[in-house]
Structure formats: C-alpha cells, structure tokens
C-alpha cells in the first residue's frame, strides 16, 4: 500500500517517529465522548478504525479496534481489546458485520478516502460515525497568526465534511462539536485558551500537522509566542479566550445512516 511506514502506519504520517508519547497528551475528552456515544445510539457491536491508543472507544459496547501502526497498538491500555493490524481500505470483515462503525481524527490520513468509506459502509449495518475537522474552519484558531504553515498543512490534508457525507450516502448529518476550555484531548485547537501549553515540544509532536513543517517553523513559533506571552501581546489579542468555556473551531461529527 502506498504510504506504508516501517511500523505499519498508513497515509502520510509515520507514527513510529511521532507517536511514542501520544497517549500522554491525547486522552478522551468526556464532552466529545458523549457526542460520539449519542451518535452510536443503541449499537452493541462497534468497529473502530484507526483506533490508535483507544481514545473514545465506548467501553460499554463490544468494540473491534483496527489500527495499522505498531507504535500506536502498543500504547493501548490493558483493559481494551488488542487492535487488529489492518487497513481501512481492505477490512477483514463480512458485509454488515457490525451494528456501527466509528473513526476519530483519522480520515485525513487514509491512503484512499473513497475506498475506506466504502469499506466502512460495507461492513456496517447501522450508523457510521466520524470525528474529523472542517479544513475551511481551521483558520479560526489563533495559531494561524504564529505558524500559518501548520494550519495550511492541516487544511490540505482534511477532506471536506460534505464530501465525506456524500461518499457515505444515506441519511447523513454534520454537526459542529464545541471544544471545552480544559479539553484533555490535546489536539491543536484544544489549546485555544491555554497557549503556554503548546510551547511543549511533546504537545506539538502529538499533533501530526507539526510533522509537516521544518524545525525553523517550530523555532520561530516558540520564539514569537514566548515574546508575546511575556509582553502581554497575546493576551491583548486573545486573552478573552482564556475565559471562554467552549471554542467553536473546526471539529465536526459526521453521522451516516444507511439508505433505504
């Protein structure tokens, strides 16, 4: 498969290089977890593709996780089922085998979006639930002022939610997911009101978009953000975000029910 890395990572990111500390930074956020659980409705058996370290897997359901990266599979906690080594474009399951399917923060890394979505629909008789980002909304994040290259790299990778919904077909919905101020799933926009935390190189490493820019961008980002935090410039521009309970960023939840 095109894009396969040494540890089995699919798509455009090598999690053998950047995924080592992923679990320490990317914990499941309860508010997001609730939105996913509601979308899964009464489903008992759930396929989780791109399962990674197990974030957002509903422990009250029978989950079958799929994850091609050896590094990410190794970080799964012992109370979760071991992940199957497979790719979304070629799932080793029968037609309509699962009540529901889910994937979080992974569609932008698939080698073939259309084939992957077709496979999800093939093996799922109920809802397909996808947590992803709308590339047209990424510019809302203050990071665009400090490292526009990161925003540009991220926006170039994410497919339009409308395209995802169209490819899945059936009865689809796209709903925004507000990001809480103290979001424990520390993806990029989770730092909207906590800029200091993004100065941690490990925090950036846990967000794959940063792997697409060179060290000079990291260095410039750290330097300029530190100066603006020390001088109060960041707070003059964005300090109100520190008191905002939720941020309406790019995060969306796509739910697709099969057609008649």
Q: What's this entry about, in short?
A:
Helix content is 32%, strand content 15%.
Question: Please, how many domains?
Answer: 1
Query: Biggest sheet, in brief?
Result: 6 strands, mixed
Query: What is the name of the CATH superfamily?
Result: Vaccinia Virus protein VP39
Content-based structural category: alpha/beta
H-E string: HHHEEHEHEHHHEEHHHEE
- Order the strands across the largest sheet as they lie in space: 2-1-3-4-8-5
The multimeric state of the shown protein is single chain
- The tally of helices reads 11
Helix content: 25-40%
Number of DSSP E strands: 8
Give the termini distance in whole angstroms: 33 Å
Task: Please give the CATH class.
Answer: Alpha Beta
Radius of gyration: 18 Å
Principal-axes shape call: elongated
Q: Which percent range describes the beta-strand content?
A: 5-15%
CATH topology description: Rossmann fold
List the uncertain runs. Answer: 1-10
Mean pLDDT: 91
Second-tier CATH architecture: 3-Layer(aba) Sandwich
Task: Tell me about this structure.
- There is one protein chain.
- The chain has 260 residues and is an alpha/beta fold.
- The chain has one domain (15-257): Rossmann fold (3-Layer(aba) Sandwich).
- The protein contains eleven helices and eight strands.
- It has helices spanning 15-18, 22-25, 30-40, 70-73, 113-123, 143-146, 148-157, 161-168, 201-205, 215-231, 233-238, and strands at 45-49, 62-66, 100-104, 128-133, 171-176, 179-180, 246-247, 251-257.
- The strands form two sheets. The chain has a six-stranded mixed β-sheet, sandwiched between helices.
- Helix 5 (113-123) links the parallel strand 3 and strand 4 (128-133).
- The longest helix has 17 residues, at 215-231.
- 44% of the residues are buried.
- The model is unreliable at 1-10 (pLDDT under 50).
- GO terms for molecular function: S-adenosylmethionine-dependent methyltransferase activity.
- Residues 47-125 form the Methyltransferase type domain.
- Keywords: Methyltransferase, Transferase.
């Amino acid at each position: 498969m095109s894009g396969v890395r040494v540890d089995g990572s699919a798509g455009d990111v090598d999690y053998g290089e950047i995924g080592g500390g992923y679990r320490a930074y990317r914990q499941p956020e309860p508010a997001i977890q609730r939105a996913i659980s509601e979308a899964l409705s009464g489903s008992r058996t759930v396929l989780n593709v791109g399962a990674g370290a197990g974030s957002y897997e509903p422990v009250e359901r029978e989950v079958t996780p799929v994850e091609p990266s050896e590094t990410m599979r190794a970080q799964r906690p012992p109370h979760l089922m071991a992940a199957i080594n497979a790719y979304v474009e070629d799932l080793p399951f029968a037609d309509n085998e699962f009540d529901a399917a889910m994937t979080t923060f992974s569609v932008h890394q698939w080698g073939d979006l259309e084939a992957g979505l077709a496979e999800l629909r093939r093996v799922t008789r109920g809802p397909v639930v996808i947590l992803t980002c709308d590339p047209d909304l990424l510019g809302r994040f203050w990071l665009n002022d400090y490292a526009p290259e990161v925003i540009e790299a991220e926006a170039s990778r994410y497919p339009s939610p409308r395209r995802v919904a169209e490819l899945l077909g059936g009865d689809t919905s796209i709903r925004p997911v507000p990001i809480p101020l103290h979001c424990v799933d520390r993806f990029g926009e989770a730092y909207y009101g906590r800029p200091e935390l993004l100065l941690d190189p490990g925090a950036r490493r846990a967000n794959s978009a940063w792997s697409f820019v060179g060290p000079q961008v990291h260095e410039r980002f750290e330097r300029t953000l530190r100066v603006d935090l020390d001088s109060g410039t960041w707070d003059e521009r964005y300090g109100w975000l520190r008191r905002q309970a939720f941020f309406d960023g790019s995060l969306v939840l796509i739910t697709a029910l099969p057609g008649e």
